[in-house]
Design a protein that fits this description.
The chain is α+β, with helices and mostly antiparallel strands. The chain has 3 domains: 2-79, TATA-Binding Protein; 81-104 and 228-278; 113-213, Orthogonal Bundle (Endonuclease III, domain 1). Helix content is 46%, strand content 11%. The protein has helices at 20-24, 65-75, 82-92, 94-102, 113-122, 128-142, 156-160, 164-167, 176-188, 193-196, 201-208, 216-226, 237-246, 259-271; strands spanning 2-6, 9-13, 32-34, 40-44, 47-54, 57-61. Strands 1-2-6-5-4-3 form a 6-stranded antiparallel beta sheet, with no helix packed on it. Strand 5 and strand 6 (57-61) form a beta hairpin. Helix 5 (113-122) runs antiparallel to helix 9 and helix 11 (201-208) packs across helix 12. The longest helix has 15 residues, at 128-142. The radius of gyration is 19 Å and the shape is globular. The chain binds a DNA duplex through residues 27-28, 120-121, 123-131, 133-134, 171-176, 178, 212-218, 221, 234-239, 267, 271.
DNA sequence: ACCCAGGAAATTC
DNA sequence: GAATTTCATGGG
């Protein structure tokens, strides 16, 4: 992968194993909106950019060279060799090979940990459309507006200071008290998200699960999408069905150190092939 | 009206 | 302990 900076835009060349739609519409982030030209616009780190294809290249519009190097390159996980990971995973199981071929451009985003924590608390017993709406209201009400008109994800401090009443403008229902408990535990240091990045996996997961409203599945999502712990293997309703039907006799540990990436291929494949489970 | 949605807590058995 | 019910909200 090479990149050049030109006029507020970063042009990325020679990038393989990447698709905007596979990566941004596969249920790992709730903050990217598709544009009319097929690109996507979104906000992370408080900065709003759009990203689109230009022939073989990708353009990140609205990014400085420095922001690309310190933020976006990592956010989109451009430096991990997905070709190699896919090849290794595909050897493990023929159905996993199929799933990877179905959406070969998926990458696991490195989202901000607190955003992943709150987003996946909101995701429980909810549908993606509505999750996106709640997250949008959360940012518009409690985030900071930037020059581009986008809103940052609110800080833990900002949310921790709210009452349930004040938070209820986002209409997240019974999840309001979960969000507040998460924000307050992060502010107090009872839960240290950065420490969870390096802690042994079971300990990191247990620490996240001390938050009211965070069970195994949400904890795994935070570990995978927010802390890039690729051994995490979130088991939602789709994945439980998929494991039963497509991978009987297979346990999550079978997929090894990149189980979370395997999970993303399988999740996306299953969601777009519901007929497999009728 | 009923059912479900990238679950988890509370209750019941 | 394992199985069931409840928890807001909105769309089909």
């Amino acid at each position: 992968m090479k990149y050049i900076f030109e006029n507020n835009t970063v042009r990325i060349q020679g990038l393989s194993d990447f698709s905007l739609r596979d990566t941004l519409c596969c249920g790992q982030s709730f903050r990217w909106r598709e544009l009319e030209d097929g690109g996507f616009s979104g906000t992370a780190f408080g900065k709003t950019v759009s990203i689109k294809c230009d022939g073989e290249d990708y353009l990140i519009i609205g990014s400085t060279k420095e922001d690309f190097e310190t933020l976006w390159k990592g956010y989109f996980d451009f430096e991990l060799d997905y070709g190699k990971i896919k090849a290794d995973l595909s050897l493990l199981h023929p159905t996993l090979s199929e799933a990877a071929k179905f959406a070969p451009g998926i990458r696991i985003l490195r989202q901000e940990p607190f955003e992943a924590l709150i987003s996946f608390i909101i995701s429980q017993n909810n549908n993606i459309k509505r999750i996106e709406g709640i997250v949008e209201r959360l940012c518009e009400n409690f985030g900071e507006k930037n020059e581009a008109g986008g809103y940052s994800f609110p800080t833990a401090e900002k949310l921790a200071a709210l009452s349930e009443e004040e938070l209820s403008v986002i209409r997240a229902g019974f999840r309001h008290r979960y969000i507040l408990d998460a924000a307050r535990k992060v502010v107090s240091g009872d839960v240290d998200l950065e420490r969870c990045r390096t802690l042994p996996f079971p300990e990191a997961k247990a620490e996240l699960m001390t938050i009211v409203g965070v069970g195994e599945k949400v904890a795994d999502c935070v570990l995978l999408y927010g802390l890039h712990r690729t051994e995490a293997f979130p088991l939602d309703v789709w994945m439980k069905r998929a494991m039963k039907v497509l991978f009987p006799e297979v346990a999550p540990e079978f997929f090894g150190e990149y189980a979370g990436i395997a999970q993303q291929y399988i999740f996306h494949y299953s969601r777009l092939h519901p007929e497999l489970f009728e």
